[in-house]
Amino acid sequence: MRLKPKEVTCECGHTSVIDRDTDWCTKCCNRIFYTEKGRRYGKINTFYMYVVAGGVICFLTYVFVELILTPTLKF
Ligand SMILES: [Zn+2]
Is pTM, for the whole model, over 0.70? Predict the structure, then answer.
């Protein structure tokens, strides 16, 4: 979704012009957001991604233990 180009100042102080909800700072490569709401949403989104990634890792560990280690230990 294209938005009206707007100047956004990054946490590092570098100002970038963005026309999307979110973009990367060209100086420090941090994420920058069009609005404050977008910034908060981005943080929740990042947290959610970590939770999902953690869940997947736990699940894979469980599957690994159940399917590979448990039969192996029986011998
Ligand atoms: Zn920056």
Answer: no
